[in-house]
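Q: What structure does this chain adopt?
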Amino acid sequence: MKRDETTSMNAGQTRHLALCLLAVFTLLAAVPAAEAYVGPGAGFAFVSSFFVLFITFALALLTLLTWPLRFFVHMLLKWKRERRSRVKRVILVGLDGQDPDLTEQYMRDGLLPHFTRLSHEGTFCKLQTTLPAESPVAWSSFQTGCNPGKHRIYDFLVPNRKSMLPELSSARVSPSPYTLNIGKYRIPLRKPIIQVGRKSQPFWKILGRHGVFSSVLRVPITFPPEKFRGVLLSAMCVPDLKGSQGTYFYYTSNGEESRALTSGAQLPLHRRNGVAQGFLSGPENTLTQEGGELKMPFELRVLQSRAGEAELILDGEIIPLQIGQYSPWTKISFKAGLGIKVQGICRFLLLETDPDIRLYVTPIQIDPEKPALPISYPSAYSIYLAKSQGTFATLGVAEDTSGLNENILDEAAFLRQCYDIHKEREMMFFDALEKTPAGCVVCVFDITDRVQHMFMRCLDGGHPANRGRDIHPYRDTIRELYQRMDELVGRILNAADPDTVVMVMSDHGFKPFRRGVNLNAWLKSNGYLAVKSDAAGRDMLQDVDWSTTRAYAVGFGGIYLNLAGRESQGIVNPGRTAEALKREIAGRLAAWTDEETGERPVKKVYDRDEAYSGPYVNDAPDLVAGFRVGYRAAWECVTGGIGDVIVSDNDRPWGGDHNMNPPDVPGMFFCNRPIASPHIHIQDIAPTVLDLFGVPAPAYMDGRSFMPDSSGAGPASER
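A:
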């Protein structure tokens, strides 16, 4: 590498570090110790008020004392790497869910000039995805280069074999196990325990050990953030302040209105003389013995002089509201006691002022300036981004698909939210590009996934979700989305020099989702699953009679045997009995026909022992259903619901999906360089990036570099 390039890299990384350190010291100078801010459960705040300051000071002192040694080691590693590296920088952009078939169609129509340029200069091909074809699994394989049997992420939800309740696969947040009781207060003596579910190492951590700096933004399954040489902002599975994956709030002054919300909460507004009173619902107060939900009251005054406008008065602050317009991000401070506050952020959307007042509030998210839980590495990175660019959404899935799915938001409001959040992500990304002139920049934009979930139905005139809805205004929504992504690609190409490799890819494609299959109902109907005598239609597997159940389903296609010695109430003997049961279920499920359509909803049933390999295969579903295009696991089945209806129309706005047979929903791959083979898999990305920087891929990786060697004779991994 040339001297000026090396200097540029050092300068860029130094600026990045300096800004992060500045943000730390700015925060410490501005916030009193008593003003601690926490995440789910207020107890963490108590210890944070002291330990954050102490630990930050200690780390800063250690950094200064060890600087000469670390600088020497860094320069040695960099010198070795530069001798092997074939590039100065790699820019790797993920457009979650962008479909290769639609992309190719719009390219032929002349609508995507920058994607077309990429395909002519280098490569455009389909990218094989994981089993199942869903984001947490695929992005885990993307970053580790491994199949799920080695990284242990098999779905969003997996069963806890002890409690027999579904749980998140990606991370688990538990309260401090040690507390001190003083009067009515219960003071935690340790921080919450955060366990990462993904095993194996992301490629940027391996790069860091070889002296390569990486900026990693919003890649799914990076919560909690791990230490490495670079900066990182977490994405999918970052919780909101209530500890959920996104609980929105719907307020109405109509006392007779009742909505059956599953992902949100309906709260009252008490109206008198044009003023409505309500409260924001915060996290549980774990600081006191009695507990209870933290609340913050507010008033909403309708402005009679200006139609469709109102003022929200919150903690002495007046927030102007207008129907259809989101407020800016607003900081919320819940008072937990002992002078401790729990701070988050949210946005308000006024829906109606007459005859009733209706208000939507986003999930209350972790404040990036005072993060309750670790959402970035280093912790100062989120502070730096907020200080330099403004407050931004931190929730793992910040675009509120549930609000639209449950008809609280309309399509226009949802789209405004998506593009507002996308604008925040673009600012972060181009800031990272500027400050990482050498090394690796990785960023995932998820607007492509969210919009296609909700508007894929608009490309399918006969979709059940379109009944009674006017889809005409939104028929071009996905085309316009792809054009917006094309503009993004153009800006990236303009920022790339000749010594930069640019890759643009998606983790899977997208297809219409017309019919939902409840695998638990099918298992029940075929005698494999039994329910309790008092079954009440509950989810989370609560209605299962484990004493006579041989198989059950959780997630987007996983079927598990109730195996003796593995499940806490297992009855199926391992070995020949279990294998015979798997073959029986797989055969009957693959042969099953949807009577209404005449189609076979399940195209292929995968056996875990054939689909996966590695040390965590025993954690995998015993069988995985690969659904035919148009079908997907039913909503209630995903969370362990049973019911009696096996297959039914999907009439929700969420009318597109990718949880289908993986070969039918591949992702896409573009690169500004030719590749050695067009037949590539998402787990090939990690070893390819390592290869470009001259770093050998670990032997355990399943993927292989698809970049040709210097002679162009074949993949570098085969040299």
